[in-house]
Amino acid sequence: MLQSKRHRFQVAGCAAILAVLMAVPAEPALAQAAPIVYPSAGQTMDQQAQDEGACRNWATQQTGIYPYQSAPTYYGDTSSGAPILGGAARGAALGAVGGAIAGDAGKGAAIGAGVGATAGLIRKNRDRRQQANANEQAMMQYQSDMGRYNQAFAACMQGRGYVVR
To answer: Signal peptide span per the entry (predicted)?
Structure first.
């Protein structure tokens, strides 16, 4: 009987570790690079600086995008172990009541604590996944916006006789 309890706790521990590792969000994608501009029609550096300024303003007017605003901020896991500990405490209390009815409050509390901690871990992992999805959506929107802005900037600069890549 002791062997089977130990085995169950080992399996539960491995499952908890696996769940935590699966909940770690991946690295966000990098933002797009700004276009490279070459003065192909003999423009001076001063003229290029003026043209770039005018084209940046025009691209902002056309797209509503301000390229110098910061990229979305990523929020990692700011929660503590409170959901897990809280779940364990609630589970232990309920398990103790159920165990007392069945004649072994200690065993019921131990089982309840394990179930409650697992529920807390699941809740915490769900919250992490939701935050990771929100971060990913914000970055995708930012990249899309910057792509539109860069396209408008490039069109303006090409119209002024520059090669843009």
So the answer is: 1-33
